[in-house]
Design brief:
Oligomer: single chain
Number of helices: 1
Number of strands: 24
Structural class: mainly beta
Distance between the termini: 6 Å
Strand content: over 45%
Largest sheet: 7 strands, antiparallel
Length: about 325
């Protein structure tokens, strides 16, 4: 999902050569009381940067549903384009430099990602994984023996490996998770996105380790843990940060409370048999403090019940 959530945020097309590039963007504006669908279209004929989706109004979230960028030039020369998100003049690239032959299109679909279509409308190549990425197995099989729950220990860091990122930089993702028992007296609760090299079975007692892990984004879920329901949390990366292409990605949860922590839906499995990889660590890591920093995360335990998170790119 691509979101514009501030009056300083726009989507831009950069065209590296002069030509005829048509664009169309479909989006929806959400406020606390309204939902408004809209679109924008136009043509770029110069080597320039063009804001093709404007910033939303104040207190409005603009959700990008579909983007279609087509080379309509009559010359046989490919036109190279890329899309970026600009936040107060700071750019984050959403695609790589993409050459489009005459009649070819770069297309974005919500929850499907980016792909290039040939002149006949067939996929030339795709740079994202279609559909949601869920609990990902490193080994030959995912065990997932039984659905269970786990009560959160005060400031105990929980994490789950959710696989490789798509083949383009990502600045926003959605996480689905379930609280089965609400927290009481929460001081803070956060879900973070960490990237870095993963080591499976790094030592005799470690489920995993992340060497030079880095937090690139987080969301405050203090209000969410007070409700025992399924939650959908949007995480936007920090300014100047993004999830790099083809990178190991971990979802990390932690909270501090005065009375009792929440209980999360979990699975029971054994990672030594090639199942899903998670970690529980005594390290009191807080995503908002780790943002942009290189940290070490070491897992504990080889057989346990760990919370599960589902990611939608």
């Amino acid at each position: 999902m691509i979101l514009l959530t501030n009056t300083t945020e726009t989507l831009n097309i950069d065209t590296l050569t002069a030509g005829k590039i048509d664009y169309t963007a479909y989006y929806a504006d959400h406020t606390s009381t309204t939902f408004t669908a809209s679109s924008n279209q136009g043509t770029v004929s110069l080597a320039t940067s063009t804001a093709f989706v404007a910033a939303p109004a104040a207190s409005t979230q603009r959700q990008i549903k579909t983007i279609i960028i087509t080379n309509r030039d009559t010359t046989p020369t490919a036109q190279t384009v890329f899309v970026k998100k600009s936040v107060a003049g700071v750019d984050t690239y959403l695609t790589a430099n993409t050459p489009l032959g005459t009649g070819e299109s770069l297309e974005y679909l919500e929850r499907r990602g980016w792909k290039v279509l040939n002149r006949q409308g067939a996929a030339k190549y795709t740079s994202a994984i279609a559909g949601p990425i869920s609990t990902v197995a490193l080994g030959p099989q995912a065990i997932g023996i039984a659905l269970s729950t786990r009560a959160h220990l005060n400031t105990a860091c929980w994490g789950m490996y959710v696989g490789k990122s798509p083949r383009y930089p990502v600045t926003q993702l959605n996480v689905r998770w379930r609280a089965t028992v609400a927290a009481v007296g929460t001081t803070w609760a956060e879900i973070g996105v960490y990237v870095g090299t993963s080591q499976h079975g790094a030592n005799a007692t470690a489920t995993m380790a992340m060497v030079q892990a880095r937090c690139v984004g987080f969301a405050d879920v203090s209000a969410n843990v007070a409700s025992a329901v399924t939650h959908y949390t949007t995480i936007t990366t920090g300014t100047g940060l993004a999830i790099p292409p083809d990178e190991d990605v971990w979802i990390v949860f932690n909270s501090e409370f005065a009375t009792s922590g929440c209980t999360l839906s979990a699975s029971h499995y054994d990672d030594t048999l090639g199942g899903l990889v998670t970690f529980v660590t005594a390290q009191s890591r807080r995503p908002s403090v780790d943002l942009g920093q290189a940290v070490g995360l070491n897992g504990l335990g080889t057989l346990s019940i760990h919370p599960t998170f589902q990611v939608f790119w």
